[in-house]
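Exercise 7. Predict the structure of SDR family NAD(P)-dependent oxidoreductase from Psychrobacillus vulpis.
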Amino acid sequence: MSKHKKIFVTGATSGVGLLLAKKLQAAGHEVWASGRNVVVLQELSKMGIHTIQADLTAEQSLEDLFDKMATPDTIVHCAGVGTFAYLTELEEKDMALMMKVNVLAPMSLSKYFARNMKKRGSGHIIFVASQAGKVATPKASVYAASKHAILGFANAIRMELKEHGILVTTINPGPIDTPFLDLADQTGNYRDKLSKHLLSPEKVVISIIQAIDHPVREVDLPSYMSITSKLYAVFPKIVETVGKSFFNKK
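Solution. The predicted structure, encoded as tokens:
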């Protein structure tokens, strides 16, 4: 592991974010963690992790977060929400929530901290995006749109910030075996159908830590998904036809 850093992890009270915060703390980094679950935050605090209760959909929460924490060396945007349903069945409140948490919040956080990173001449912003940001599938229209948006944002600021010594990485995992799946698809069908293909949270966390230690542009998980996304970019109709049965597992 690289030299000890000040690392800020959002979405740190469940799933990948929770495991990542614990691993980074165990490795000796100064970890700051935000999330909504007070009980989990208290547990993290007992481990020596700096915690901030924050609802990323509320502007006041973002302002409080900025006030409490100086600019970190590395930001890892893990917070995310999803609702898997056909467009005509989606609630507008769920559509708005996905865009606020998955897109607007990380944009605002990145903007704020990038200013100070520019003054310092260094920094690393990591987005835990999704393969859905490269290949959209049925019942994930708004979720996929949010991930397409954050990938586009990351690609743009990577070019803007490079000359200031700030690195930008996207982690693009497929479905992960975390509580997120149960919340996004309350039918349970998606988890059942993809059980053999689900990524372990540990595998994703290891990849994030490797990217912190040895920064790269992007990481696709599993690695073969990079082939699928590249094929989709060139032959979308063929990929949609051939992959129809897999894409319709939700």
